[in-house]
Amino acid sequence: MTDNSESTEFGGPAPAEAGGPAGPAAATRTGTPIGRAWRRYRAWRRSRPFWAGLWLIIAGAELLLIPLPIHSMGVILHIGIGGISGILIGAILIAIGLLLWFHPVQRMFYSIVAVLLAVAALVASNLGGFLLGTILGIIGASLGFAWMPGRPERRRGRRRPAGPDEADGQRLVEPGEPAAESADSAEPAAHAEPAAGHEQGTVLHGLALLPILALLLGLPSALTAAAVDPSPSASAAADPTASATPDPSASATPSPPPSPGPSAVPAASPSPQPSSGGSGSGSGGSASASPSPTPTPTPTGTAPPFAVATAQSTLTATSATLAGFAYDGVVSVPTASGRVQMMEFSATSIDLTGATLAVSQGGATLTTTADSLDFSGKVLLYATQLSGDIGPLSVTLTPGNAVATLLQILSQLGLSQSVTQSFPLTMTNVTTLQPYASAGSLTASALQIS
Amino acid sequence: MSSETNPPAGESRPSLGRRHAKPSGTGQGRVRWKRFAIMFVPAAAISAALLTLTANGALAASFSISGQQGETSADSLTGQGFQQFGTADVANAVNGSGLQPVVESEINSAQITNLCQSVVETLPLGLGTITLKITGGNNGTPASASSLIIDANQLSGSTATFGSIQQGIDNSALPVKTPALAGKGNFSQAATSISITNLQEIAYSTEAGTFTLPGFSMSLTAGNNPCFADPNAPVNNFHL
């Protein structure tokens, strides 16, 4: 088995020996404090799977840092476990690295957990931190798994049964070491390979097979889950092993239904939510408790079903071509800060060229530009002000002003719609304040947001 | 732990078959390389299998990248369940301290052809610049993502078509709730469907619940080779 041949392999360029070359040199400096400190450190390092822990800590840090900083909890809630799996796996790998240093007794368990997580990170977190984290993690976990205290030689023929405290941990090795040295040169190995004496071939190899087993069992369910509907329960039910161990399939398919979260947003004006189905959350004490439009002077005006943004926004266009255009009157539109009187326009299509939408909020301005913005379908446009040039005429519409009233009369007679349906009205230098638009479809060309 | 065992330095025992005989023998441990292989080989094999499955589009990976600015480009993106609003991202201090205004685009599910994502990083110690690039969806089968969330500070497309769009609705009234990301009153838009061609964007963070990347390939190259040339193409400074 591994027993005899192992000792000859040690000379190999082992990562575990990376600190080794300094060893003999340091040993000569017995007197100096630095030398003593170095030897202490070296003794500490060699009495535990140091390099295993180090690789795992680096791997964990790498996995952890890619998704950081999380810009909001909202995103995590939104996309589910996938958003935090990298952080979770990274943190656990770091913890395991530290545990390998400070509690190496359980290194088998730690290493198996670490190798599972490192492999699971491939699907769960940025392809395992772009492979680097997974590779480092697998190396670290394998080193931790392969590390054994004491000397490997002369383990054959020991009939010493596995003792009670046979976790063969560091606590056993280190304090027990002087005694071991005095007793028998083979003693350290007794600590080292206690279970190993007889059972190493079976028990430990069986342990080593666990992660493979779990992964192999988990893989098909992960695949089916990925192919069909992601549901972690499917893989959990598939085999108990996979559910008992951190099954990569569970994290591979994080089942991220972007559920309308328990609305942490204090929606100021509860509005009917046809798509989300969630009832509007409690209002922030605003006067607009009812989502239904308040009666307005005009019979045709209907408030949009959604709360309209109050952020300062301006839509400008070098030209606007309006077909089937009508002014439906003034409506009281629900917004986060109460109701706002806005004009409602409807059209069968509105084509804007040279359009710019500037939104200022939170001290920043986001600008959307497009060579053309073509709204079609059932176009509804709400605005607090609409101005532009119709031929030589400069027109400004505000709720209730003369031009608006005139247009409203034309609209109520049906003239405006029918005329512009046949002869679309073209305005130039159009400016719309606080626009809210809805349409069956919008096609933008040369769209640019910055 | 109490690991200072103070080995008797001169303790010399004939160590069988060991090339460098260590004078201090107490408390030492060793890596058994066969045991190493027992775990390493299967784990590496499974990782390789998982990567192969990912490249075949059979397995979805989860992405969450933040703090670094990267480029994303695609020949076309078709999505269902779209919403977009302005918010601010925490950028790491090196990349432009503090909060950066971004447009957050959320797409419930998206199909992407010729996807390319790149991050350019300047290494410390004058080690130069490297580019990490991921491509996928270029073999006839589009890449697909679910719960895609992209925080871009620059986004462009040659044509964009939105179905059933609402422009200017309040952030708090979006179909899919976004807890307090932008605050109430903020300008948002939502559409049931979206289709963009020649998408190019520069993003501060990219999240995807699941991402299948048929034809996936990942490359790390020296130099500045982002997905598309842009005057504002970001170069990140390496940080921890």
Short description:
The complex is a heterodimer of chains A (450) and B (240). By secondary structure, chain A is of the alpha+beta class.
Question: What secondary-structure arrangement, pairings included, does this model have?
Answer:
The complex is a heterodimer of chains A (450) and B (240).
Chain A: H1 3-9, H2 22-28, H3 33-46, H4 50-65, H5 73-79, H6 82-102, H7 107-124, H8 126-130, H9 132-146, E1 147-149, H10 170-183, H11 187-192, H12 196-227, H13 232-238, H14 240-244, H15 248-252, E2 312-323, E3 326-335, E4 338-361, E5 364-383, E6 385-390, E7 393-397, H16 402-412, H17 415-422, E8 425-433, E9 436-449
Antiparallel strand pairs in A: 2-4, 2-8, 3-4, 4-5, 5-9, 6-7, 6-8
Chain B: E1 29-31, H1 33-55, E2 60-91, E3 98-113, E4 115-122, E5 129-136, E6 143-170, E7 187-212, E8 217-222, E9 236-237
Parallel strand pairs in B: 4-9
Antiparallel strand pairs in B: 2-3, 2-4, 2-7, 3-6, 4-5, 5-8, 6-7
